[in-house]
Amino acid sequence: MDFTEKTIKKDYKFNGEVISLRVDTVTTPSGNTATREIVEHPGGVCVVPLDKDGNVIMEWQYRRPFDMNVFEIPAGKLYKGEDPLECGKRELEEETGMCANTYIYLGKMLPTPGFCGEILHMYLALDLYEGKINRDEDEFMEIVRVPLSELVDKVLSGEIIDGKTALALMKVNEMKNRGLI
User: Fold this and answer.
1) Closest among 162, 167, 65, 156 to 121, alpha carbons compared
2) Is residue 2 pLDDT above 90, yes or no?
3) How buried is 22 (Cβ within 10 angstroms: 0-12 exposed, 13-18 middle, 19+ buried)?
4) Catalytic residue among 118, 137, 139, 159
């Protein structure tokens, strides 16, 4: 069965620097009319920086929507037309001061497909070396190195609740278990 909805109208309610909000009027597969609230987002990239000792470079960062610090891997927003790998390299160095000789694409994920058009590209960074931290002036975070096995335990226990971080860490752990890295 084809579940595609046909767009009748797009009504933009807000256009910001990072997101836009629109309300679509659609025809559903049954022929009924419905509305869909959609957040447009340029997408982003996240990176699992894994050092030679099996530690992942992680960030504690305050996240305003939840009014709490979140434990997560380095990540950032794509600029219009930017290559995801280049974005990942930029964000890794800007936030952690680290660079990598090897990047492995882990795929993409849809963080909230019910209302947001964001696509996140995930990478594993290996053969790390020192670069230079160059955070945005409104970015504040603590950088820590944590063994991958400990992070997997934190995902399974519910201590790590950031979706991109949980998925990327579990993918890297499975790749390690299968001898792919």
Assistant:
1) 167
2) no
3) middle
4) 137
The burial of 169, by beta-carbon neighbours within 10 Å (0-12 exposed, 13-18 middle, 19 or more buried), is given as buried
d(CA 61, CA 141): 5
Residue 83 CB-half CA count within 13 A: 5
Predicted confidence (pLDDT) per residue in 112-124, tens digit: 999 999 999 999 9
**105 pairs with which residues across the strands?**
123
**How many CB atoms sit inside 10 A of residue 70's CB?**
16
Flag whether pLDDT at 99 surpasses 90.
yes
CB under 8 Å to 99, separation ≥6 — which residues?
89, 92, 93, 128, 129, 130, 131
**In the annotation, is 137 catalytic?**
yes
Strand 120-130 relative to strand 44-49: parallel, antiparallel, unpaired?
Answer: parallel
Q: CA 85 to CA 91: how far, in whole Å? A: 10
Residue 5 pLDDT: 95
Residue pair 164/109 in contact (Cβ under 8 Å)? The answer is yes
* C-alpha closest to that of 75 among 174, 169, 165: 165
